[in-house]
Amino acid sequence: AQTPVKVTVTGAAGQIGYALLFRIASGQLLGADVPVKLSLLEVPQAVKAAEGTAMELDDCAFPLLSGIEITDDPNVAFAGANVALLVGAMPRKAGMERGDLLEANGGIFGPQGKAINDNAADDIRVLVVGNPANTNALIAQQHAPDVPAERFTAMTRLDHNRALSQLAAKLQVPVTEIKKMTIWGNHSATQYPDLFHAEVGGKIAAEQVDEAWLRDTFIPTVAKRGAAIIEARGASSAASAANAAIDHVFDWVNGTEWTSAAIPSDGSYGVPEGLISSFPVASRGGRWEIIQGLEIDAFSRERIDASVRELVEERDAVRALGLI
Ligand code: NAI
Hints:
By secondary structure, the protein is α/β, with parallel strands linked by helices. It has ten helices and 14 strands.
């Protein structure tokens, strides 16, 4: 029988964790023929709740689930891990300055990066979901010098899927008709969902909608969807975030011709090398590649640059705090 793939999930007792773990155990993360072993990392006060979730996982009798481990020790959680989903993070609290937020998350993602460096399997792939996701991924990566830098990624797939859904609704087409959607930049309100390369029925999406809708409705709706969900649900997106994490890892492992992911920049499209920024990407042979050669017009350039500028500021802030 195939050796199980070890998948570590941090923040396992949180709401995204609850929506994510069952789908991983059912085979949706890696494929319906790949056995998995789950490792749940939580803070000590939430270990008991994670144990409760593990009881429910047991009660599903998933054929592909070969074991569950629960711990508050990152060195245990990441030992031999092949996939790490870093979901647990420090949320912004009322009155918290950006520096406080970055510092609190540096205290989580620095040690977790080191634990990955020291304990994970050679083929480790890391997806950071916990916000600020791009910069948390950078912090973890910088504490893992022995892991290839490209294995650290951050999630903009939820933004990508939101963009698909908004455009499909506007044009009254199935989402499957839309190709080449791209989210650029930071997973934040400055992100840029790009319709100038997206295609619907083989034609450029931006040419099938009016400019005012694109600028004043589409872009802000996608960028602020997280806040709209909180407003409606009274809690932040969880099932859709878990779904996007599944999509990201599945495509990374199994390949795709085009999606969006925040990966370390090689300098493409004027994004400073090393920043973990969202790009149009393909996945081939288990590696992300930035799709090259797209023409960027002035409208897009301005918006990509603004989001990348924010990422540079976050990187400089964590540098100044000594977190990387
Ligand atoms: P939640 O608050 O329900 O759960 C977070 C869990 O992480 C808690 O159980 C907490 O105990 C745990 N945790 C905190 N510090 C930890 C540590 N050092 N090690 C292990 N576990 C730790 O939050 P939820 O709703 O599950 O969201 C998690 C994160 O995902 C948040 O940062 C949220 O902003 C982010 N998010 C990102 C999205 C994206 O598109 N990138 C979309 C939606 C949410």
